[in-house]
Amino acid sequence: MSVIELKNIEKRFGDVSALEGINITVNKNEWVSIMGPSGSGKTTLLNILSLMDNPTGGEYLFSGEDVSGFDESKQLLFRREKIGLIFQQFHLIPYLTALENVMLAQYYHSSTDEEDARAVLAKVGLSHRLTHRPSQLSGGEQQRLCIARALINDPEILLADEPTGNLDENNERVIFELFAKLKQEGKTIISITHNPELGELGDRTIHLHHGKIEHKGDL
């Protein structure tokens, strides 16, 4: 069953074509890695998938609904209810504890539930860091906190933008294992990455080059 269908997606910035003829289907409980050099269109594609930007042309279907023409209020609701975002730059609130950072994400979605927040932090191995602020956490712990924050509202899909880009090798491995565990538990994941190891862990790898899919066989 497909969760995402991109049909001939295009994105232009003036005379510059950032994406051209992008056709991708992502099925439920699939992990798709999107790889490519800098300037290949990966971030532009992520912005369209998360409805932080609109395509210039084509259709974006999410569970069969065309979401590419949503207005700003519908886009915001879509991101809150359907998407869990994980960034290379952690974007944590520095004066809040780990528990409070997760509960803040709950608050913007519906209402806070401390037990649910504690449970999702346990899932990512941070039960012993509930009262620590981001500055008291290692880079790997901060990224796991970001993953907990993305998971708290039980999104239909996780979008990860270079999730290991700021981590050392040991912490990369922890994040690899956590993503694999989430996949086994039924999560649908799209990861944007330069890291070939992370790319190979997914079910499929799609290569972008100059805004186009490089290998049609990857579809």
List keywords for this structure.
single chain, 219 residues, alpha/beta, six-stranded mixed sheet, globular
Whole-Å distance between the termini? 15 Å
Bin the helical content: 25-40%
Overall form: globular
Which structural class matches the secondary elements?
A: alpha/beta
Secondary-structure element order, N to C: EEEHEEHEHHHEHEHEE
Residue share in β-strands: 25-35%
Number of helices: 7
pLDDT average, as an integer?
90
What Rg is obtained from the alpha carbons, in whole angstroms?
17 Å
Tell me about the largest β-sheet: 6 strands, mixed
Low-confidence stretches: none
Q: Identify the strand order in the major beta sheet.
A: 6-7-8-3-9-10
Strand tally, please?
10
Could you characterize the architecture of this molecule?
The chain is an alpha/beta fold and 219 residues long. Helix content is 35%, strand content 27%. It is built from seven helices and ten strands. It has a six-stranded mixed beta sheet with strand order 6-7-8-3-9-10, with helices on both faces. Helix 3 runs parallel beside helix 5, helix 4 crosses helix 5 and helix 5 runs parallel beside helix 6. The two termini are 15 Å apart. The model has no long low-confidence stretch (mean pLDDT 90).
